């Protein structure tokens, strides 16, 4: 059942009081009248009605609206807006001016792929928006472009990512000057569409298990690329089925030796492999490519499966930043071990996770906007003989959508923070910031994409039948976004990387070392944790206290610290009997929860900071309210944990629940302004039921159908 | 966060013991080695490895397998199989013999609609499977057909449902002999494809708000059907856009009066309206139909939007079972009020919910089978320098899929029970059984379809990239099934009907009346509830106790009873200040939780009964294990509630958690047999990664792509 499940237990104090009376005698007629009333939704025109008049109803509904915060959308929006809004508007304007480039609702896979290619080439050559330039100079601007094109068609965003972040990024970050000089322009201007050939049929998450080999042939000064078995076929490779001219292929580098084995495995390296003739576009000898076929979504991207049969490439095609092979077959590297080199190689790919976390929240913004606007428009049922009420006035509907809206805001600030961190890292390159960005991007990518995937289902369901019309977009948003949970690192694997990092930091602490910036809080809260929860504050239930960022952040951090400490102890205990692998697996659920808890702590911290730094008073009040909902809803969802360790007493748990529902209701009262502040023009939203001008929605919709 | 979130708190007792030692001194090297080990997944070929040997590993993994229950798939399968397997096999055989009728992965909307029509006509005329016969004679057989065709293409199942259950059902159940005589054969043999025109653009859930009117014209002895405004356009009407010849149109019956108003509104009635010429298939005068267009799924069904402009139909076309109009415009009915007639009319449509609950679990079976078989095949990571392990051996993966498998079994028995109840009701027609089936079908439809919708996402995600290939089906299953949550009654609305019913029953009890069969348990447990939880049993933590069906069922029923009692008290309290409507809305989350809790109680009860009645010992043991997982997982998910009222003490909560994880692991060990027992032939499963013969999956997949 949903999180509302925990409701009953916590209702106890309120109910217990009521229960002391005999339920038989206290069963006054009112609730039974209500039941009869509701039955009458099936029985119209009954002459009995016990309900309040419509006027009274309106007053009640409006009661808390008297407290409504005045939100100036323009102010809030300008605070939210990133610094790269300009280039996003260029993207929007370009596609607005080229209606023939817009993706229709129904399009075959092959047509979609061609359209997607035309969109990308148009963007680069006609609109002269050059993403590759920004990959190098200003990654934040590149991410802004990726988000904007994603709202045009998510396939386009992924194709752009394959070209510039994956294929282009591998050349830039894993290669050296000679590679940049040779490939930069062709990648930039789309003359050299390329692929990123890492994943194989049998190995996705476990990159070290890749089996494609690149054997150096000293006689010809070439590498020979081979697919040794079916499991090693490169699979899901974007741009491969139709458009790619090149691929950066990840393969085990094999060097000839003079011992009996004959070759030495130097680990996974990346190689530039031409796959199609630049002029004729025919497949090159030894390269076999098949179409991976229809996918759940993103059918504008041409994923292919590649098999290599003794494909020869010049030695220069090894992307040699972290390791090189000399003419005579000697290996050289600035890094001491295979594992360091492998880590450095994969470390360069972290940008993909940053852009996914960021873009995933872009998708969530669009979906939440459509669902909330429609829920404000749609009316269904109401007090008998009175006008129907808007469905967002139902508690259950607020429960579905308002914590989601709060999360969207929370993720907005957290992912912007990640982008900043990433840009800083690219500038300074210092090791601590590399580790920090690695774990933060893994955690946010996993957490945000899982949340968005769940939310897209909720949005569709919350919009009922009209949410099922393709034109209202939940289907394509969901299908396209779905794989965000898997590519650039499976979410379950990424969360384990966060857990590993936390455990490392924990170990450091007890060895007296310093913690990375994002983990600094652990040092303090760890000490707090080792003492018992404060029996006085665990009873505090005042609204001021519950809305105090210190209480909220302490609660989040306390949970993370406790999880960290307890899982470390469990790992230690189980290692003795199960060994390291068995112990890790035995604690896996616990470890994943730890990682999520940490990420939630970081998100809340960024949100609180954003509230603090907001210059406009009205906007700040609104953001504070939304931040409270984010924090309280998360605490309430996990109330079992807090109760079990007596971090909150029963009365406090009840107060948290009541306040969460109340804040949910207050956020509902500014919900329209909050989604308007995302500043997504109707051209981007597109769904007839989610447009900015209320009232026009239904007529847009009937027109769409042909009335 | 997921339900595993609650883990940490409950881990406390175990951890507290460990915590009494100084964490700095007790941080032995083992867990840290594990962390280093896991980091090495990014750093292969390190020479350090602390892990157990592969042999030790295997022994550990196999340890609990020693206890593995011997499941004979044939025995279990024959117990599970319904009595109408024969006709399902006829369906499968027919479509297997007609490959040109199979729906390809990529197909345009218009082609899909035509194909779907050919599939249906072929089934009826060629295979001579006549669903309409069974709608009348043996609904259980009809449901079995619907489930089987759903596994061919869900669009076909829905088109079949529109024709026979909705259009045909309305003629049979709301009409009288004259209608049956005139329409039965044409509906049966598909000469009269028809629509069920209830939903309007502005009104879906609120059927009483429908605005289409049917005004009697005594001069011509006709009704005049009119769409008074855009909001009253009939929307989402299946079979309307292309194939329908007739529609049963729900409209307010207006009779002329001699007062100043001129007409009297007799409430919503159903009318047979011809919409297309039987010979030319042209739209009839006054009927305007537009295509509702592309949908998220089910694009083989031609949903349309209909507007009526003074469409005249003979008086005989009123479906007059519950109310009739005489030649001189007088209204007669065997039922005393508009509300009774409306209730009786809608009550006849309950079969649609039965079939959706049943078919939804059919979808879940297919998805769970594919996901579990693939998770047994797929290997990723493992102890260093050892073969990789199957991903279903990871605790996190078991956590995703095993409770889902248990739920699939649970729903199987619950929905079969519902089918039996429904058939019984259709035979006897007694009022108590009508009410029982009404609430049970509403609750199971809502609960099962919501659960399946969530599970489809989990299945796709659990299968990673290969789950994203369209050929592996999660995309189409999810897109087609999604609307199950909305049509035939929005789930949130249906759960409220269950809550209403429970509150009515509760009221009855205190007035001394008898409870409907399904609710009988409330009588007993209500009394138990009014006393405090037993402080002795709340501490019992032995495995025998936790696996005792009595403990499990008591816990479920206690929760329902408590929720019922507490929400009744809250409704009463809030009614005083908020009125009935406001109080209901104020308690809405609580009411929905109550309804879900009740449905879970009913499901568990049916499962326990099925275990008891299973004749084969091995199958019974397996079912008992699965039933334990279903029960314990649900209790653990809601542990906050139980803890808060001290129904379980901390030690017991911890024991429940440990046992749940252990049972989850045990179920994993018979997971293959459990999905095999669903008895879904590879022809039905179709997904290359989910076929019955292990090992063939990857080669099926590479062949599919063209290698």
TrEMBL record, chains A, B:
Residues 195-311 form the Acyl-CoA oxidase/dehydrogenase middle domain. GO terms for biological process: fatty acid beta-oxidation using acyl-CoA oxidase; lipid homeostasis. The active site is at residue 488. Belongs to the acyl-CoA oxidase family. Keywords: FAD, Fatty acid metabolism, Flavoprotein, Lipid metabolism, Oxidoreductase, Peroxisome, Transit peptide. One of its GO terms (molecular function) is acyl-CoA oxidase activity. One of its GO terms (cellular component) is peroxisome. It is found in: Peroxisome. The keyword Transit peptide applies. This is Acyl-coenzyme A oxidase. Its cofactor is FAD. Residues 1-23 are annotated as: Disordered. The lineage of its organism: Eukaryota, Viridiplantae, Streptophyta, Embryophyta, Tracheophyta. The keyword Glycosyltransferase does not apply. Residues 548-705 form the Acyl-CoA oxidase C-terminal domain. Residues 347-500 form the Acyl-CoA oxidase C-alpha1 domain.
């Amino acid at each position: 059942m949903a999180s509302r499940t925990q409701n009953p237990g916590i209702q106890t104090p309120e109910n217990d009081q009521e229960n002391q009376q005999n339920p038989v005698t206290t069963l006054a007629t009112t609730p039974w009248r209500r039941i009869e009333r509701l039955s009458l939704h099936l029985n119209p025109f009954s002459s009995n009605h016990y309900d309040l008049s419509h006027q009274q109803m309106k007053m009640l509904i409006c009661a808390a609206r008297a407290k409504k915060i005045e939100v100036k959308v323009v102010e809030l929006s300008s605070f939210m807006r990133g610094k790269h809004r300009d280039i996003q508007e260029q993207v929007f304007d370009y596609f607005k001016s080229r209606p023939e480039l817009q993706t229709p609702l129904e399009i075959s896979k092959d047509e979609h792929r061609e359209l997607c290619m035309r969109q990308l080439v148009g963007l680069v050559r006609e609109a002269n928006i050059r993403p590759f330039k920004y990959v190098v100079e200003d990654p934040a601007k590149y991410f802004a472009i990726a988000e904007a094109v994603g709202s045009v068609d998510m396939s386009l965003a992924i194709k752009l990512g394959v070209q510039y972040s994956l294929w282009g990024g591998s050349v830039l970050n894993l290669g050296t000057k000679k590679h940049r000089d040779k490939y930069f322009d062709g990648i930039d201007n789309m003359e050299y569409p390329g692929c990123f050939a890492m994943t194989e049929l049998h190995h996705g998450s476990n990159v070290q298990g890749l089996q494609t080999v690149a054997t150096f042939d000293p006689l010809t000064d070439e590498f020979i690329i081979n697919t040794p078995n079916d499991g090693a076929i490169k699979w899901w490779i974007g741009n491969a089925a139709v458009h790619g001219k090149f691929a950066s292929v990840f393969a085990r580098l094999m060097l000839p030796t003079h011992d009996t084995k004959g070759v030495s495995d130097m680990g996974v390296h990346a190689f530039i492999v031409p796959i199609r003739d630049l002029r004729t576009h025919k497949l090159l000898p030894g390269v076999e490519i098949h179409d991976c076929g229809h996918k759940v979504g993103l059918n504008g991207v041409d994923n292919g499966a590649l098999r290599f049969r003794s494909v020869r490439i010049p030695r220069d095609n090894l992307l040699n930043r972290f390791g090189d092979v000399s003419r005579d077959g000697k290996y050289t590297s600035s890094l001491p071990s295979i594992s360091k080199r492998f880590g450095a190689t994969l470390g360069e790919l972290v940008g993909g996770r940053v852009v996914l976390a960021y873009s995933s929240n872009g998708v969530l913004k669009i979906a939440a906007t459509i669902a909330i606007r429609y829920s404000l428009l749609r009316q269904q049922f109401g007090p008998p003989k009175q006008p129907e009420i808007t469905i967002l006035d139902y508690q259950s509907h607020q429960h579905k959508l308002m914590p989601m809206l709060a999360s969207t805001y929370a993720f907005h600030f957290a992912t912007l923070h990640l982008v900043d961190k990433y840009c800083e890292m690219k500038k300074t390159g210092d090791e601590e910031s590399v580790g920090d960005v690695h774990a933060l991007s893994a955690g946010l990518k996993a957490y945000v994409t899982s949340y968005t995937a769940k939310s897209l289902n909720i949005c569709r369901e919350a919009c009922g039948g009209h949410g099922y019309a393709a034109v209202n977009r939940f289907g394509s948003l969901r299908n396209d976004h779905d794989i965000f949970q898997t590519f650039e690192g499976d979410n379950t694997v990424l969360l384990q990387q966060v857990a590993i990092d936390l455990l490392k930091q924990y170990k450091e602490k007890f060895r007296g070392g310093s913690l990375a910036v994002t983990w600094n809080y652990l040092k303090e809260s760890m000490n707090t944790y080792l003492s018992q929860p404060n029996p006085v504050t665990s009873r505090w239930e005042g609204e001021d206290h519950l809305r105090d960022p210190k209480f909220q952040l302490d609660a989040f951090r306390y949970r993370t610290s406790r999880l960290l400490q307890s899982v470390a102890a469990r790992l230690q205990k189980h290692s003795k009997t199960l060994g390291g692998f068995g112990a890790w697996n035995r604690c896996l659920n616990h470890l994943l929860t730890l990682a999520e808890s940490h990420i939630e702590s970081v998100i809340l911290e960024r949100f609180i900071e954003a509230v603090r730094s907001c210059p406009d008073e009205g906007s700040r009040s609104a953001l504070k309210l939304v931040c409270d909902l984010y924090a309280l809803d998360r605490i309430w969802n996990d109330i079992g944990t807090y109760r079990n360790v007596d971090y909150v007493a029963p009365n406090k748990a009840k107060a948290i629940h009541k306040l969460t529902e109340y804040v949910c209701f207050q956020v509902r009262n500014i919900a329209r302004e909050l989604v308007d502040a995302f500043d997504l023009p109707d051209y981007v939203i597109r769904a007839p039921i989610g447009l900015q001008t209320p009232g026009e929605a239904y007529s847009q919709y009937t027109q769409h159908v042909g009335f």
